[in-house]
Amino acid sequence: MENKSFGFLSELTLDPFVIPPGGKYPIFFLGITIYFFGIFCNLTLLTLIIMKKNLHKPMYFILFSLPLNDLIGITAMLPKVLSDIVTETNKVYYPLCVLQAFLLHMYGGGILFILAAMSFDRYVAICMPLRYSSVMTPRVVICIISLVWGLDFVLIVSLFSLQTRLPRCKSVVMNVFCDNPSLLKLTCGNRTVNNVIGLFNTAVMQAVSVSVQAFSYVKILITCVATRRSQAKTKAVNTCVAQLVILITFEVVGTFTILSHRFKNVSADLQKIMGMLIFLVPPLLNPIVYGLYTSEVRHTLLRVLKNRVSV
User: Fold this and answer.
1) What is the pLDDT, as a whole number, of residue 230?
2) What angle do the packed helices 268-293 and 230-260 form, to 10 degrees?
3) pLDDT for position 2
4) What average pLDDT does this structure show over 238-253?
5) What is the pTM of this model?
6) pLDDT score of 261
7) Residue 301, Cα to own-chain centre: how many angstroms?
8) In DSSP terms, which residues pair with 122 in a beta bridge?
9) According to the 3-state scheme, what is the secondary structure of 122-191?
């Protein structure tokens, strides 16, 4: 029976997966394995940056935000979905639904802004190597990190605050997790302003991120072509490839997610899975990709493992 109480503490119903008999526990254990693998990889990267002094550099202080953001994304989404699969309750209180949606949108915007900040750092390091220490001072690094999280927070808060002006008249969230579009569909009234602001915020995030990264990587490419030092070219490529792979992965997964909701012949369960991928693929791949393509992180991790084995 649908819940007819639409107060702040009302209970919402999530639209569950259609799971065949005997399938929920294999899916649960697969999901738990994926979750703990993602947690382990991102915590490993965070721990290395905190504990190892050779990684106490502007580049890695900015990078610190990436695994932290990935932990927010995968933790805000996956445990709740897996819990609902096992318990078959598919219920959530409205405040918790809003909190989950807020964190997931913070995660999405965070990736874009963090990658933009990282590309700027690489631009300064490769195109202005002699001025790097004077440009990327601790104060500047703190300002960049604060701008990344502050701008992301302001845009997402402005998006969610608009929902308070609309009354809620439904209690069924047509997804396995909460996000802003799903919450907006619970409201009645004119949603035009919400939709316009949502598109505007998305456009701002993409425009800022893509423009900063495009400028940085074009300048880096020009510098690489102009320099005659092959070692410098190799170092430049290795430090940038990881960030480009992460950006391309995020954009491709995000595009597939958006397209899956634009075709009517796509099943509801497939749409839900595609929606989950954007919160699963980057947190699983980002620390691995960055560890493989960044020699300093890779060598630091190998030294730690060798010391553990020798002990």
Assistant:
1) 62
2) 170
3) 44
4) 78
5) 0.89
6) 59
7) 23
8) none
9) HHHHHHCHHHHHHHCCHHHHHHHHHHHHHHHHHHHHHHHHHHHHCCECCCEECCCCCCHHHHHCCECCCC
